[in-house]
Amino acid sequence: MSERAIVVVSAGLSTPSSTRMLADRLAAATARTTPVQARTVELREHAKDIANHFVTGFPGPELEEVLDAVRRADGLIAVTPIFQASYSGLFKSFFDVLDQDALAGKPVVIGATGGSARHSLALEHAMRPMFAYLHALVAPTSVYAASEDWATGGGSALPERIDRAADEFAALLEQRPATQATDPFEDPVPFEQLLAQRQG
């Protein structure tokens, strides 16, 4: 099994962040199951560029590089804090500026953090439909971590759920051909051919 490139997107706003912690644990559990090269993206570091993208229609160089990494990745781990019973605005904004087809057919595992377990359904009524709309292949198991999960060292259910989600994500990665990075300017159509097509 060849090594797969994955991007880990964390929408945590603080340092340290329980959202980042959950993202890291999902990435580590995936790496124990299948060979991956993981790159972690902290969205708070790109918040200004994301906002500017909405205004100007163009990403800054750093944001463009992140968006390109997501496009080229074989899979995605996406974790957000839950605010007002849904994903954070920063998390949604990032996926709003991503090309609509960038996640088509791409394996994704979703996770979220919050102060209370009663917000766990946000994964199913908010996050999963968003990624389904983007035509991603979302792992069946999603992972929610409430404050009490960390207070008890993760309890007994959280580690098991992380491992199950990671196993499903790894299986999706293994079933999908590795992404081949392509450069649209690598093999240009000769000018004579373009001219002949126009004349024809």
From TrEMBL:
Q: Name one Pfam family in it.
A: FMN_red
Keyword Oxidoreductase assigned = yes
Listed GO MF terms: oxidoreductase activity
Which keywords, in A-to-Z order, does the entry hold? Flavoprotein, FMN, Oxidoreductase
- UniProt xrefs under SUPFAM superfamilies: Flavoproteins
What is the protein name stated in its UniProt record? NADPH-dependent FMN reductase
Question: Taking every annotated instance into account, which residue ranges of this chain make up the domain NADPH-dependent FMN reductase-like?
Answer: 6-150
